[in-house]
Protein: Ornithine cyclodeaminase family protein
Organism: Flintibacter hominis
Amino acid sequence: MMNTILLKESEIKKLVSMRDIIEIVDKTFVDLGEGKTINPTKLNLNLGDSEPTNLPYKASLNAMPAYIAWQDMAGQKWAGGWGKGRREIGRPFINALIMLVHPNYGDFLAVMDGAWITNMRTGAQTAVILRYLLKDKKDITVGLYGAGVQGRTQTEALTAIFNVQKLYVYDPVPAAAAKFKEDMKDYVQGEIIVVDHPQKAAKADAVITVTPATQAFLKGEWLEKGTVYFAMGSYQECDDQAILGADKLICDHVGQCLHRGNLKHLAEEGKITENSVYCTVGELAAGMKQVGDVADQKLLVVPIGMGCLDVAVAGIAYRKAFSLGVGETFAFDE
């Protein structure tokens, strides 16, 4: 009989912290760069979030399988964003489940909430990548676009690694930005500055767009040399100059990045190809590529999101849960 552990969000939060997740993400990037971890391109189910599907749900689901070599763990995240129905009933945009499977015996080891892990590892990946790029630099400034859940996890992760002297935050809903400032003041070592125009957040060491925007609002002409720009949205947040004007383009997964998010339309027009990508995050993590002095460059990082990070975090949560007796068990094959 196969006993599968079921884990709720509240239980996962007690098993892994942001610092744990930062370490897990770092190890997984290195493993991926060394060719050990396996991360296939995600499979997308379009439920009406973009053409040509004309379904009314304004939603999209991704199947994101992975094998984590350093854990000897396999699994998949089944995750999506809902722009209509969930918002109408007051639920968060993102919803997800993660399933873990024993790579040898095929037993489903765990099924757990994936939304919290998604948000946390999305923040962690930015901080870890920035550490690869900035090396020993500790004091930084940040320009953050989006004062929602992922804006918060970005901030939590960055402040766990760096001394954030100034964090400029822009959100088209001023009340959201004001609440973000109040909620995050104990995380940020320096000052949180709410700005009323997107240009005012663009002069920083790290500029991060983590929004559901479908129309470009960040202009490339605002970005200066010495800036690392993280384009993290699933749609279109920046103009073409922000992309084409970058000295180096770094992706987490080349295939995924060219078919979704900020690079999609330029890839479709043939203006961005696989040859445009300087390196992957895995290659950076494994020491296979170096970017040089960031101060002399505009760097563009597009981490569209990989299932291996979710499965790796879930794998550690599962093992801790198993050892501590946390969660319920269910025998699907009973």
